[in-house]
Write a structure and sequence with these properties.
Two copies of one chain form a homodimer.
Chain A (H helix, E strand, L loop, with lengths): L27 H11 L25 H11 L4 E2 L2 H6 L6 H8 L9 E3 L4 H14 L1 E6 L18 E6 L6 E5 L4 E5 L4 H9 L3 E2 L12 H7 L6 H4 L2 H4 E8 L2 E6 L12 H4 L8 E8 L1 E2 L3 E9 L2 H14 L8 E5 L1 H10 L2 H12 L6 E9 L1 H17 L3 E2 L3 H8 L4 H10 L2 E11 L3 H16 L7 E6 L6 E11 L4 H18 L18 H20 L20
Parallel strand pairs in A: 2-4, 3-4
Antiparallel strand pairs in A: 1-2, 5-6, 6-10, 7-11, 8-9, 8-10, 12-14, 12-15, 13-14, 13-17, 16-18, 17-18
């Protein structure tokens, strides 16, 4: 049996990711490469975040009477109005979030951070918040990159953040039906530790896995790095317990299939805290695989690689798809080869000799019984070879796995070096994948370079479906003096291209504040009215995570 | 390539299923068996439906001004107020529906039947109906067995049925993404003919397939006989175009995966016409399989067979599950052996010699490339054998497939013979399957036998999931003088047992009028409020399929 219990890390520092001591620093070669690619003169210069004492925090507007009621419910040690705690909950982990907090702006911080013990405490906290018109932000790992955990006070007497870390128990595990009920505040590694002790895994490994929580997975409709095999969080969730300002709800059921009307569970999955607080969820679980096997292949182009993945998914033997299935475009591949050390550099040279001048690298991890995995790999190899693939051996895939959770650390270091870096993602059908890729990549490059400095974009597919695939863009440039404006410019250009291509505004980052202007593109004006009516039914005073998901109506803007 | 274009049959007669001339009549052996099992003295006696001229139809209350407007939109030949058409649309095809109509009761008939040409005509018809407060029943194949297509006039000036048969076109097929957009009124065989001409199949084959329509599949969250392989309709649907009284909606998208908030598509799937009229839907399609292979196995008991299916699903090689996967309990197996002719009778004797005194018969159809199917069958055989299965050869599975759509014909004949017969279904997790089976079966038997006559129940699993399976009950008894009361008594007892077992009130028959009292069990009182608020947003005057899905509030009943 594969023991793949993931590393348990401390909760994130206020200005970046997790525990920076665990980060691997950029090698000199990488710095040289970045300096050249982005025309950065001063990459050695260190841009430290401001001192914590210099952070601008809003004055707390929490009514002392409300505070006393919250103490009564949770115990005073679980109701924090300390600056440090408020700063730690001032936002998520998007690049603009980090730019803001590093510059000392914690104006999105809550007036208090509450740590309820259980669902009943959540229910009572919501009662207090309704009575005092206090906005409530549910908070899991705080890893949102779309403004999902900012507090917005407008129209409220105050705003609190409900940190669910104490809801951290495995409630129930049914080994026959292969389901487990988990409390919402369990973080990724805790979920895996609890399940793997019983021989099971959730298999949900987003890049944020080490910090993110079960409730966050479900509330944001997240996808993990192995979701091609295990399924997205929305495919794994069977039922959800929710506390709303109107009362508790239990949606979904144990029944494996039902035709009992619209699937209301799917209103809560992806609701991002706007309808209520998810306190636990029942999830499908899988026995820990006996064996993992790694593979890497190279294709003459990104389009050729995508066509190969499509064939593998559509025409391969059902069940042969690797659990992890990624394909980098030639830019990302070149960077991987360039920055991965001598061995990977040699790979690039080898491929050039094989006629692949702009190769696209695919990484695979198959999981399952050893004998079966071997057969799946062999059958898959036939398809990949016929699709002009060159087999490279497992090393690039094991190297990827080794660094799979390191992206956010790297960003912290890049920001410290004055490098702007951000990511965004979408998905498209196989028939629209190439055109979506070209349109979004082009828009990002144009927007990056608007002020004369060269930008850099690399892209990969990380989730494969029968009808299409995801597209994930990582882009870098010299950080401009107004980094927030820079980010907004690039994000707007990319979003316009996504909408124009008919793709989705988000494949797995969710909506939050940042994507809410594009919700009309996703569900139409009438769809937004439907969402608003559901919210009004469950949260008539509108205290639940205001400003997220449902776009605020603008009168003068079309 | 397997050519499995399904038979195109005429639309159903008013008092029963499709074209009775195509039915195979009950063999004398079956009559003898039924007479003995159900203590029926007079099974040879024929109970004909009343003459059409004797049918009681409500006087049409349709305002002539509204009628004129409907003529204007659809053309007078597509707005029928003829008795015959109204009778044909007076209800669905449940046993109580048939008992009512055969006795001459068509009081649920609409005031007019409208046949709109396209989505735009649907939109305009809804406008007229809002203006005149006319209730609207969307009508596909009219195969509902839960009262989904009855007209309910209370609170309205009149009620019309919107028959969508003219929306019968394949709009678009994307062979790369493997999706097709189909108009809602296409019936099952027409869908297959259109797709198979392009090399694809929807693979959706409920027992009602030959009459039912795409819109009905989506509106009722249906499952088909091969849904273990192809997936339920809710897993196949990518997007839906809907006309609501408030305006048109397009929900879902081409994007294969999205985290853009709650999945509103799942509010329309299963909405049973209560929110609007589905005019088209984009569905996942699959290439027509190269080969189909049949298998039958017998297990010492229903529980042993269920455990074997669970192992096949959970521990077998991913993708080895047969597309069709059914398991009969020992009652259904005994009846199959008894009534299937000499060959199947011999099977029963053979199994008794092998020590299986109360065998449970499993039927499988594997689909795919020939070589692959052979391997899948071989691997599956290892699991089934280890689980005490005895292989029987393909005959019982091919025989089942031959008669797969004949159930409704058989019921017509049984009713004519004075035999009460009905079906109901649920699903449960593997861990709760045995107890759910025992509780529901026991409740039906007790209720059947309440007046001293013996009843008969047979049960099968027809859909297998990683976490559980469906349960489908067929039950017979002597038809009592008040067949409607008899049916209500048995249905209520079974429903109580289902709710008590924590199972779902319907796995694939949907809700309609009959299951609406159990919706609170499924989604809670707050869930019903959510549904009502969504309905109010899209259908503020409540004209869309009133009385279905959402339970009518009772003041005196708890």
């Amino acid at each position: 049996m594969v023991t793949h219990i993931t590393e348990q890390v401390p909760r994130s520092i206020w200005y970046g990711w997790a525990d920076p001591a665990r980060a691997t620093t950029l090698r000199p070669g990488a710095l040289t490469y970045l300096r050249a690619t982005l025309a950065l003169e001063s990459i050695e210069k260190i841009h430290e975040p401001v001192d914590m004492s210099a952070i601008r925090l809003p004055t707390s507007t929490l009514d002392p009477a409300a505070l006393a009621e919250l103490w009564e419910i949770c115990g005073s040690q679980y109701v924090s109005i300390a600056d440090h705690e408020r700063i730690l909950h001032a936002g998520g982990k998007s690049t603009p979030d980090l730019l803001r907090i590093r510059s000392g702006d914690a104006l999105g911080a809550p007036d208090a951070v509450i740590f309820p013990a259980d669902a009943e405490a959540v229910r009572r906290v919501l009662e207090v918040c309704v009575a005092h018109r206090i906005a409530v932000v549910p908070f899991g790992g705080g890893t949102s990159v779309v403004g999902g955990v900012h507090t917005i006070r407008t129209g409220f007497s105050a705003a609190i953040t409900l940190d669910l870390r104490r809801l951290d128990k495995l409630v129930d595990l049914d080994p026959v039906a292969r389901t487990a009920t988990l409390q919402a505040g369990m973080r990724g590694p805790d979920i895996e530790a609890a399940l793997q002790a019983r021989g099971f895994t959730l298999g949900h490994l987003p890049q944020s896995h080490q910090e993110a929580t079960l409730g966050g997975y479900v509330a944001t409709r997240s996808a993990g790095q192995a979701s091609t095999g295990y399924g997205r969080s929305d495919a794994l969730v069977k039922s959800v317990a929710l506390q709303t300002p109107t009362g508790p709800m239990m949606l979904g059921s144990a029944a494996p299939g039902s035709a009992a009307g619209p699937k209301l569970l799917d209103l809560v999955v992806g609701s991002e805290g706007t309808l209520g607080v998810i306190t636990s969820a029942s999830m499908k679980i899988t026995p820990v695989p006996e064996h993992k096997s790694y593979g890497a292949w190279s294709f003459p182009s990104f389009a050729a690689g995508a066509a190969a993945l499509r064939q593998l998914e559509q025409d391969g033997v059902r069940g042969d798809m690797p659990h992890v299935c990624r394909l980098s475009d030639s830019d990302e591949t070149a960077a991987t080869f360039k920055l991965g050390g001598t061995k990977t550099e040699a790979l690039g040279k080898y491929l050039a000799l094989r006629g692949q001048k702009t190769p696209a690298l695919a990484l695979f991890v198959w999981e399952g019984p050893r004998a079966e995995v071997t057969k799946r790999k062999r059958r898959s190899a036939r398809i990949l070879k016929a699709a002009a693939g060159v087999r490279l051996g497992p090393m690039p895939a094991t190297a990827w796995e080794h660094g799979r959770f390191s992206g956010p650390y790297l960003r912290d270091e890049l920001l410290t070096r004055g490098v702007y870096v951000e990511t965004l993602e979408t998905s498209a059908t196989w028939s629209a994948l190439d055109s979506t890729y070209a349109a979004v990549r082009g828009a990002i490059l144009d927007a990056l370079g608007e002020h004369g400095k060269p930008g850099y974009v690399q892209t990969h597919i990380s989730h494969v479906y029968p009808d299409g695939a995801s597209l994930y863009f990582t882009f870098l440039g010299a950080l401009e003096p107004d980094g927030l404006a820079q980010n907004e410019r690039i994000k707007a250009a990319a979003s316009k291209a996504i909408v124009g291509a008919g793709a989705t505004i988000t494949h797995h980052h969710a909506v939050g504040i940042d994507h809410s202007p594009y919700m009309e593109h996703e569900i139409g004006a009438l769809g937004i009215e439907v969402l608003a009516s559901v919210k009004h039914t469950l949260d008539p005073t509108g205290i639940m995570n205001p400003g997220k998901l449902i776009p605020t109506r603008k009168k003068d803007n079309s």
